[in-house]
Amino acid sequence: MEFFKPGTHIDFMGKSTYALLFSAAMILIGIISLILHGGPNYGIDFAGGTVIQVRFSQSVSPGEIRESLKDVGLTGMVQRFGAEGVGEYLIRLQTTTSDLEGLSATIEGALAKRFEGKTVEIRRTEMVGPKVGKDLRTKGLQAIIVALIGILIYISWRFKFRFAVGAVVALIHDVTITVGVLSLTNTELSLTVLAALLTIVGYSLNDTIVVYDRIRENMGRMRREALEKTVNISINETLSRTILTSGTTLLVIVILFLMGGGVIHDFAFTLLIGIVVGTYSSIFVASPLVVMWEKWFPSKGEKRRT
Amino acid sequence: MAGKKSTFRWRLVLILFVLIGALIYCFPTLVRETPSWWPKFFPQDKIHLGLDLQGGMHLILEVETAKAVESAAERIKNDLKNDLKKEQIIFTSLDRVQGDKIEVVLLNPEVKEKFDTYRKEQYPLLQEIDSKQEGDRVKVLLEIDPRYREDREQSAVDQALETIRNRVDQFGVSEPEIARQGANRILIQLPGIKDPQRAKDLLGKTALLEFKLVDEGYDLSRALAGDIPFGDVILFQKVEDPKTGAVRKIPYLIQDKTLMTGDALKDARVSFDQNNMPYISISLNPAGARDFDRLTADNVGRKLAIILDGNVYSAPVIKQRISGGAAVIEGRFTLDEAKDLAIILRAGSLPAPVQILEERTVGPSLGQDSINKGIKSIIIGGILVVLFMIVYYHLAGMVADVALIMNLLIIMGVLAAIPGATLTLPGIAGLVLTVGMAVDANVLIFERIREELRLGKPPRAALETGYSKAFLTIMDANVTTFIAAVVLLQFGTGPIKGFAVTLSIGIAASMFTAIVVTRFIFDYVLSKFRVKRLSI
Fold it and tell me: In what order do the strands lie in the sheet with B101-106?
């Protein structure tokens, strides 16, 4: 079985201008969304606060939960957790108290009183102090930057610098668009989502490297060809593999997204976006950038027609 | 071909070794209980589950090291006060200011000179940061040597860690994790804990035990009105009504001079009185017993207050001199309270108060849910990938599937084998992700082989070139993911760390299975049968 017949020839490089415009638009939309939302939608891991996960024996309305919280003098956000009809909700409060059990007991009492006849179970309580949240934010950003630098160094060593530039720009592109989509969909940035972002940093590079590897190999064979053509041939030759691997990975992530349960939901969603964007960028961003870099800063010593 | 044959055998041994090893380590996890025939020297441990999967409590405490420095400053101040009096270096006031600094007002510049010489000789830890002449008096501001200060802060955290470890050990939690985090934080993980509040009370209490005398020579109501004699403080005893649960506070006027502290304790046990009410009997170490002997002898007929963290627990009358170093603490304890107090007293006090910075409690039912859903995702995702590979690559796809299954076994085996590794919910996600990614290497190889076959190469040559050309690409692609995983490992806490661990193991294992194992299977088939056409 084959998805792409040998000899497939799609003119990716010819479409790279549109692709770059598309990418720029995506990034812009993401950034605008981030500005309008006043920065990323930090979850309690990074912003501090308290989250309590409750489950009712039957589905109830989030509004009513909010009301019952008001009865005990608490204001919080209530959102459905997991699939509809399960009766599972997240209650998020700004306060950070050291008496978390007291708080959750208060809430349990208030809920039990209002929803008589339905059982309430407190399944999870989490409190993160503002100090820890701030620390994690700095450390998270550091982690992403350190990972990017590490990868830049590795690719510069294995390939040429112009490849490394293309790869890292593509990575920043992937992460920015993913964060933008998270902002648009109002997904909370939590520790697990950060882990997903870092995984994207590693994973989206997979595709890029496979294409780059082929470009490098073909550059040796096709000395007389224009770099642009070599790049285009290389993308086409690896297309089958690129789509296949992204496909199998996406397959399992979709399963995880659908069946993994509430806690893993955002994680899977982030990966889903990241892998789609990452696959796109290795073809439409990382590879054209190598050609552009070569046009702007021709490498010395190598004679080649452009 | 002799060389070829020997690498063939060698590879077979390696693969069998890894496979059997992985199976042995996986076994305890896969069965509910290890059967009786399972040899004792074989691994017995199941894969360690993270708190998010098995339920439990995660705490991050911050040791308020500044308080430890302050109490050190307080001690030094008291010593200095006594010594200056002894040396007849006259001062009009001597106080602790700004937390950990000491301010002395000396009689005149002459005394200041005397004071300076004395300080340099006897208190090298104190450094002058400011001195001002005010009329005749000289006001001196002293601070503690920064190196000593740092030392105090460090040892406060070390001590707190030790004390908390002791308390957790005695509380009886199976497989707790207690570790230092950063300069002054302590991470505590208590799997499967049922009563989080009780655990928190137990861990968070400073448990500073003090013995002080009650001041009975003064009218308590006047003191409560605000007229407190010099050197006295008012402390309360909390009494809870067993029926209504209402808390009553009984005030005591206490002479604020610590006669003994919990340091003098050797042991603390729960005992019961004739009404079957629990109380705590303590025994003192030799030095403590001596002090207690003298203390009781000097103060027969007076009330001795036993104070824990500023709360009076009991204030019995000293009926007679007590020798031998045994005493009791009474209070209206419930059995659990008495047990916990005894643990705290045995484990010792924290050198400084601690503050809860982060707390996460996961109920066991949620954890079980997560496990079930995670396993379901792995199985369904796995089956889909396996089927896809067969449809797309036929027999070669099956070979890749064998590698995939072996890959999962190795990851589980390694997770079970490494003592520190835990499987967390994101870790399960990592496992699912690995299933998707593990076939990547094989896809790369197979696509290469197909290309070579198209060029008209015979099966064996196509195989050879396919593997060798794909190898570097696979390597490069995996190293970058590995870099990201290692960064996560450094950065991450709990669940994230679990994800990074699974991902890293998955990458290493998939390189082995996708390259070594599949290659071996192909080589074996090609050497046994006359293959004219690869099913790929």
Answer: B91-97, B101-106, B137-144, B126-134
Q: What is the DSSP secondary-structure string of B294-323?
A: HHHHHTTTSBEEEEETTEEEE--B--S---
Nearest residue of B to residue A44, measured between CA atoms: B358
At residue B494, the pLDDT reads 67
Which chain A residue lies closest to B536 (C-alpha atoms)? A1
Cα A216 to Cα A144, A166, A203, A224, A278, distances in angstroms: 28, 14, 20, 14, 20
Contact by Cβ (8 Å): A99, B355 = no
CA distance A84 to A56: 12
Q: Does B425 touch chain A (CB under 8 A)?
A: yes
Cβ(A77)–Cβ(A49) below 8 Å: no
pLDDT greater at residue A83 or residue A50: A50
Q: What is the nearest CA distance from B42 to chain A, expressed in angstroms?
A: 33
What's the mean pLDDT in B231-255?
84
A193 touches chain B (CB under 8 A): no
**Per-residue pLDDT for B133 more than 60?**
yes
Query: Which of A204, A259, A276, A282 is most worth mutating to test chain B (most B CB atoms within 10 A of its CB)?
Result: A259
Ordered by where they begin, the domains of chain A are: 13-43+132-296 (1.20.1640.10), 49-128 (3.30.70.100)
By C-alpha distance, which of B52, B46, B47, B48 is closest to B495?
A: B52
What chain B holds in terms of domains, given with CATH numbers, is 2-54+364-528 (1.20.1640.10), 66-149 (3.30.70), 205-360 (3.30.1360.200)
The closest CB to that of A241, out of B363, B443, B488, belongs to B443
How many whole angstroms separate alpha carbon A196 and alpha carbon A43? 15
* Contacts of residue B250, Cβ cutoff 8 Å, sequence gap at least 6: B236, B237, B238, B239, B312
Contacts of B376 in chain A (CB under 8 A): 259
Cα distance between residue A166 and residue A211, in whole Å? 12
Residues of A in contact with B483 (CB under 8 A): 147, 150-151, 154, 202
ipTM of the complex, rounded to two decimals: 0.85
Would the CB atoms of A267 and B426 count as touching at under 8 Å? Answer: yes
Predicted TM-score (pTM) of the model is 0.80
Q: How far is CA A118 from CA A94, A110, A111, A225, in A?
A: 27, 13, 9, 73
Of A126, A146, A249, the CB nearest to B436: A249
The amino acid occupying position B314 is S
Residue to mutate among A57, A139, A194, A198, with most B CBs inside 10 A, is A198
- Answer whether A195 touches B (CB < 8 Å): yes
B110: tokens are: 């002459």
pLDDT average, residue stretch A273-289: 92
Q: What is the pLDDT of residues A155-209, one digit of tens each?
A: 888 888 888 888 889 999 999 999 999 999 988 898 889 888 888 887 788 888 8
Taking 90 as the threshold, does the pLDDT of residue B94 lie above it? no
